[in-house]
Write a structure and sequence with these properties.
Layout lengths: L3 E8 L6 E7 L2 E6 L12 E3 L4 E4 L1 E6 L1 E2 L2 E2 L5 H12 L3 E8 L4 H14 L4 E7 L21 H8 L6 E6 L6 H10 L3 E4 L6 H9 L4 E2 L15 H7 L4 E5 L7 H11 L4 E4 L11 E5 L2 E6 L2 E3 L12 H12 L3 H6 L3 H7 L16 E4 L5 E6 L2 E5 L3
Parallel strand pairs: 1-4, 1-5, 6-9, 9-10, 10-11, 11-12, 12-13, 13-14, 14-15
Antiparallel strand pairs: 1-2, 2-3, 5-19, 7-8, 16-17, 17-18, 19-20, 20-21
The structure holds fe (iii) ion.
């Protein structure tokens, strides 16, 4: 594996604020003052020129990008998606699988299992055991009632790869489903749900720890019925936020941050195939979607994923909340790493951690993305 020395960076989520970063064997070998004796001969040097060096972004919830979708179930599509998001600083993502006929869902899961892309940490099953009333852009035909038998069939052979499963706790037998999601070591996430506050709190008491795109496709905060949003605010669960300025009002994001603090929020893109492409007609699963000025909707106007990228998400989040750069970056790195249980290796800068890195400037333009110690994206300029 190639060595690399990054020189002169402002370091984020690191023990020190500036310096160099020596990468060896896919890991961070030294940080800050790198002793010349430890630098191998002919080590390639990358001048960060005072830009920021941060841990690579971890986007838990991605459907696609660059014209491809994980539901395409093709290795080229998967590589297109990871390359597109790497160009915006993402080094780890979860591949979102949406409700579809069982064989199509399993084909998409199998494709991710076979391709062994280093940037994919697993699968995010966004359903199918979710609420019809909160279906969002999903085709209601492919939603299912919670069933342990169906769940086992769905994940068979891929138990280790499934990291998150979105479910609606108010549906009958959701408690058994929740227990089975936990049994395969995945995170049960409350989402696409019409749950009351009590139903959502009960699911949290039984092991749910996360909310899928908070505020979108879930029961809202009402003063007599605080709903799923109220339960998210009134617990220490993690939440995902789509900070494109469209899915969530900036004031909502600011209020959530006030209540939850900066340790439980995860910035996601929820990006679809249209991310990175000009406006036009696309598909999410088998439903047509229309992208106008970067906003993706079904023909009835329902929002259908985003065209957001992680560098823009971090930039927007800082603008919406007024938080510091390290606070914003941790919501895109350390927080999801902790939630996913990969924080020993990823989500912060430190000696021995994976060399998954992003170099960006004051305006959040990504200049380099390094994955597993290798430069996977370099901006042309
Ligand atoms: Fe989604």
């Amino acid at each position: 594996m190639a060595d690399l020395l990054v020189r002169g960076a402002r370091l984020l989520l690191a023990p020190i604020e500036e310096g160099d970063c020596l990468v060896r064997g896919g890991h961070i070998a030294a940080l800050g003052q790198v002793p010349p004796s430890t630098i191998p001969p002919n080590c390639p040097v990358l001048d960060a020129a005072g830009r920021y060096l941060a841990p690579g972004f971890i986007d838990m919830h991605v459907h696609g990008g660059g014209g491809a979708d994980f539901m395409d179930a093709k290795p080229e599509a998967i590589r297109t998606i990871t390359a597109f998001h790497a160009a915006h600083g993402t080094t780890t993502l979860l591949a979102a699988i949406i409700p579809a006929p069982m064989d199509r869902m399993r084909q998409a899961m199998a494709a991710v299992a076979e391709v062994t892309e280093p940037g994919i940490a697993g699968l995010y099953l966004e359903g199918p055991f979710v609420s019809r009333a909160k279906k969002g852009a999903f085709n209601p035909r492919w939603l299912r009632s919670p069933s342990v038998r169906t769940f086992r069939k769905l994940v068979e052979g891929h138990q280790n790869l499934v990291k998150v499963v979105t479910f609606a706790p108010e549906r009958p037998k959701a408690d058994q489903l929740l227990a089975n999601i936990l049994a395969i070591g995945a995170l049960p996430a409350i989402g696409h749900t019409a749950a009351t506050y009590e139903q959502a709190m009960d699911a949290l008491a039984h092991g749910a720890r996360h909310f899928t795109h908070l505020g979108n496709a879930m029961s809202d905060l009402h003063h007599r019925e605080p709903g799923a949003v109220g339960a998210a605010l009134d617990s220490d669960a993690y939440v995902e936020l789509i900070c494109d300025g469209i899915h969530l009002h900036p004031a909502f994001v600011r209020l959530i941050a006030e209540v939850k603090g900066y340790e439980r929020m995860c910035l996601i893109t929820d990006a679809i195939a249209a991310a990175g492409l000009p406006d036009g007609e696309f598909a999410l699963g088998d439903l047509p979607i229309f992208v106008h000025q970067g906003i993706a909707r079904l023909s009835n106007g329902t929002l259908a994923g985003s065209t957001l990228t992680m560098n823009r998400a971090v930039k927007n989040f800082m603008k919406f909340t007024g938080c510091s750069l390290p606070e914003a970056v941790r919501c895109a790195t350390l927080n999801p790493a902790r939630l996913l249980g990969i924080d020993e290796r990823k989500g912060s800068l430190g000696v021995g951690k994976d060399a998954d890195l992003v170099i960006f400037d004051n305006d959040f333009n990504v200049h380099y993305t390094i994955l597993d110690g290798k430069i996977v994206y370099a901006r042309e300029d």
